[in-house]
Amino acid sequence: MNAEKSTKEAYKSYFIFNNQRTLSTISPSELSITETDECSIFVDKTRRYDNQIVIHRGYTPEKLEEHLGLFHSSYWPEIAIEPQANTPEIQTWLSNRGFSPAYDHEFLELQASHYQAIASASESISIEHWDHSKADDFLALLKTSGLECTDDIWNDKRSLYCTDTFRCYIATIDGKPCAWTTSYLHNDHGILANAYTQESHRHKGCQSALLRFRIEDAISLGIQVLLTDVMPNSTSSKNCKSVEAVS
């Protein structure tokens, strides 16, 4: 499998996993996936945020119009356009149909062999990897960020959290958890996501420390390629780029 296809397979696997683990509903998933060289289409009327069209290349407004017919207006899709597919024709069509830009994502890739460790800016931050025995504690931590989850939903989804595949990491200061993040492993790829720092502990270096710990943990497990997406020109983008050795 070539590198581009391996990356797409990793992201697809992660999408399916997120569709399963969502804590917003206990309804069984009805996810369907259609893939071509031009696009990937994800449809699930049971999950509001799992309806997407990802345009890869060579896509026309006519095809987009056809594929929109797969969705109902109550779960209208997010449309993501990869840089090589972003044409004025597509942009005009989207604008005419009422779609508007919401945010830009910068997708980053790090080869394990290019990783360079950067010394921590703070010795007061400790990082822990929580295994499945800490799943309930992880949920309690998530709830401090405003997450709502019923007992029935958690009992149904608990087995998917803090596992060998969906790995959860916690930053503590003075023994108190204050930031967390995750990684998802698929074959020799690792996807870094879900970073959150409690407001009172932001700008102290928690996410930088968590980033380094996650990368080194993944590499120790045989991961060869690390993937993430960030907001362009953000602190997250800067942190991620700082760990790649410049040749």
TrEMBL record:
Which Gene3D superfamilies does this chain map to?
Answer: 3.40.630.30
Which residue windows are transmembrane per the record? none
Keyword annotations of the record? Transferase
Among the Pfam families in the record, one is Acetyltransf_1
Q: InterPro entries in the record, alphabetically?
A: Acyl_CoA_acyltransferase (IPR016181), GNAT_dom (IPR000182)
Q: Which GO terms describe its molecular function?
A: acyltransferase activity, transferring groups other than amino-acyl groups
N-acetyltransferase domain segment(s): 125-247
Q: Which domain of life is it from?
A: Bacteria
Would I find Isomerase among this entry's keywords? Answer: no
What is the protein name given in its UniProt record?
N-acetyltransferase
